[in-house]
Design goal:
Blueprint lengths: L2 H4 L4 E5 L6 H9 L4 E3 L2 E3 L13 E3 L2 H9 L3 E7 L3 E6 H10 L2 E5 L2 H10 L4 E6 L3 H11 L4 H15 L7 E4 L3 H15 L8 H9 L3
Parallel strand pairs: 1-7, 1-8, 2-7, 3-4, 8-9
Antiparallel strand pairs: 3-6, 5-6
Helix pairs in contact: 2-8
Length: about 210
Amino acid sequence: MTLAQVRQSVVFIVSGPSGSGKSTLVQKMLEVPGTMFSVSSTTRPPRTTESAGKWYDFVSEEEFDRRARAGEFLEYARVFGKHQYGTPRRWLEEAQNRGLDLVLEIDVQGADQVKQKLPNAVAIFILPPAKEELERRLRARGQDSDEAIARRLERARQEIQRYTQYDFLVVNDDVERAGREIQAITVASRCLRSCLSDHARKILESFGG
């Protein structure tokens, strides 16, 4: 019996302020067998350290709008009034076909949209250790102006106020500990009643459950 035959996909939503270390913790999640990553589409240009197709699929505004009109996104939003980001539905379909769990790294706007469509999705919020540390991390990147950093910090404040809408909260003050926590959440979520595998359901039904 294959993995795809015995279990359904769990969709994980990972959100948190820019600079909170989401990508590092998502990598920890992907070390858990049976997980796959959803590559987001975006209209922003790639950074010098980024390659297309790993974390992002870089497209033009015209192509993004075409995909949005065609209903190809599970969620999408324009961030900071500038670039658009979206989660292609095809990743969910691929995860379901392969019997894998899907990890989405998206902002709170996208998380709201996904939760409306997939109420059983497991939402995890990544919290930085302190405002001062978040600012230090953003400045250490050397990618943003003072104005852009101030805008990111204000957005972080707004996002953090919505942490109660998430199922789990991980404080990323120690990446090793936080990594173990998010891996534990990944494994434990597969045992949630809302995420029961077909195999588990058949066993319960055999006992009249």
